[in-house]
Write a structure and sequence with these properties.
The complex is a heterodimer of chains A (172) and B (339). Chain A is mainly α. Chain A contains six helices and no strands. Helix content of chain A is 86%, strand content 0%. Classes of the chains: A mainly alpha (172), B alpha/beta (339).
């Protein structure tokens, strides 16, 4: 009886672990998509409305999804405090924090980091190029993340469940 | 200040403190150096000059000084703090609020107005398009001109230009050589006209202010940073000639004020305003009436004979001192209008 209970717990734990990993894979494309839409909003603010950067970041933060709005909010705060830092530095600091609270990869972070270095330092035409580039790169990352998600989500769901089932049978 | 204050206990001009706004656009290291220069030097500072690979300089009222790395004024360029390219870049970042794209027009014109109404001039390499300046790149020189609001600066001017009979002001031209405080006096005069001076029989007037270079009202994102009075409408960054006509049509001003009239189209627009029964007050660069009359556009204005008061400002101890007020009649005697 005790053995059976142990086996059930093992299978449940293994299944749950698998599902957790699978969910991580499924979350990335969603996060990337909200990031993309926020950057597109930033593009509109900069290129069409010529809104000053600090204000543009605040506006974008206000309408962004909750898990990406912090990135824009923090950068705006750094800029507004007039501590003598440039937009690039404010963005970098905010990005450093953002990296710790989401599931983006190094490659995706470097896209954002490159964008930050160009933010605000040139005319509209040039800003448009940098923003477009970041958007294109993010779109590619989204496609890649979706592909990975499709592959890995199912695999981890099964793997967690079946692996733990196999272990339970062996131990039983 | 005590020498200046002597004999002016009443209506003593009050000067604003421009430093918090100015320091906030300087890179942190330069901020420290400039703050280290001491209150005496800072109170006389009119400009901060940041030129790539050259010494950091402050333009004082009478001369300029270089600053050492600790902020000490020095004369030897070897001891002075050498501004790096990074300093200039960083300063441009701070001046523009990291929003160069939002200031294309300003950069094309060579200056940006920051919060507090201070004007920041920039130089670099001009990028041309169709023979006109499209933008500047490789920015290498920044000059921060500190704008000081002196409440009460026009106290000496006002009694001479008020038209007590009609309860308004005479058409007035303020002229002086550069750096004698024309803009400061005009700003304060606008404030007084707009708020009204009951003791001189002047009720508050609706003033339309055309501030082409954002120096008078010091607008930052359209909002005046300087006290230009309760009844003043500011058209910021607008060419004078066009602006005066626009104000005349749209805002129903009793007085129109503007800075630095000099081109033919400015005088034409002024003529239109004068004919519309609106009083005008404006400034002109020049050290004497004869010199002004030798400029074709202004000569035409003299010949129109409508401006009633010509006020010459000078710099005696401080900027913005009224040296002389000429009336229209004096001009006829001096035969200026005929030359």
């Amino acid at each position: 009886m005790l053995k059976l209970l142990g086996a059930v717990i093992l299978v449940a734990a293994g299944g749950a672990a698998g599902m957790l990993v699978a969910r991580e894979y499924a979350r990335r494309p969603e996060e990337l998509k909200s990031l993309l839409s926020s950057i597109q909003m930033l593009e509109t603010e900069i290129i069409y409305a010529a809104t000053p950067l600090a204000e543009a970041l605040v506006r974008v933060a206000a309408v962004s999804d909750s898990h990406v709005s912090g990135l824009f909010q923090k950068a705006a705060r750094e800029l507004r405090d007039m501590t003598g830092c440039t937009a690039g530095e404010a963005w970098e600091r905010s990005l450093g924090w953002f990296y710790t609270v989401n599931s983006l990869t190094r490659r995706e972070m470097s896209i954002l980091s490159n964008l930050g270095r160009a933010l605000g330092i040139s005319d509209r035409e040039d800003q448009a190029k940098h923003l477009k580039l970041a958007c294109e790169q993010l779109k590619r990352e989204i496609a890649r993340a979706e592909e990975e998600a499709a592959k890995n989500t199912r695999m981890w769901n099964y793997l967690g469940f079946c692996g733990s089932m196999a272990a339970a049978i062996i131990l039983y | 200040m005590s020498a200046l204050a002597a004999g002016r206990s009443v209506n003593q001009p009050r000067e604003s403190n421009p430093w918090p706004e100015v320091l906030s656009v300087l890179p942190v290291n330069i901020r420290k150096i400039v703050s280290g220069a001491g209150a005496e030097v800072l109170s006389r500072t009119e400009e901060i000059r940041i030129r790539s690979k050259r010494p950091l300089m402050l333009g004082l009222d009478s001369r300029d000084v270089m600053l050492s790395g600790e902020g000490r004024p020095v004369n030897d360029r070897g001891q002075a703090y050498l501004v790096g390219e990074e300093d200039v870049d960083r300063c441009l970042h701070l001046v523009s609020g990291s929003s160069v794209y939002a200031l294309e027009e300003e950069i094309r014109n060579g200056f940006i107005t920051i919060a507090g109404g201070h004007r920041v001039g920039i130089t670099g390499k001009a990028v041309l398009e169709g023979g006109r300046v499209k933008t500047l790149k490789y920015i290498s020189g920044i000059n921060i001109r500190i704008s000081r609001e002196i409440i009460g600066a026009a106290a000496g001017l006002m009694p001479g230009i008020i038209d007590r009979e009609r309860g308004t002001i005479h058409h007035t031209m303020i002229f002086s050589p550069p750096r004698c405080g024309k803009t400061t006096v005009l700003r304060d005069a606008v404030r007084m006209i707009s708020d009204g001076l009951p003791e001189f029989g002047l009720p508050g007037q609706t003033v339309g202010l055309v501030d082409e270079r954002s120096e008078i009202a010091g607008c930052y994102r359209g909002i005046p940073q300087r006290n230009v009075g309760l009844r003043t409408d500011v058209l910021d960054g607008c060419p004078k000639a066009e602006g005066m006509t626009m104000l005349l049509r749209s805002m129903g001003p009793s007085v129109i004020a503007t800075d630095e009239i000099g081109r033919v189209e400015d005088v034409r627009a002024l003529e239109e305003v004068l004919n519309a029964g609106v009083r005008v007050i404006f400034t002109v660069h020049g050290s004497s009436l004869e010199e002004l009359a030798s400029r074709p556009a202004l000569n035409y204005l003299f010949r129109l004979g409508v401006v009633d008061r010509y006020v010459l400002l000078g710099r005696e101890g401080r900027a913005g001192v009224v040296k002389r007020v000429f009336k229209a009649g004096d001009l006829a005697e001096m035969e200026v209008a005929k030359c």
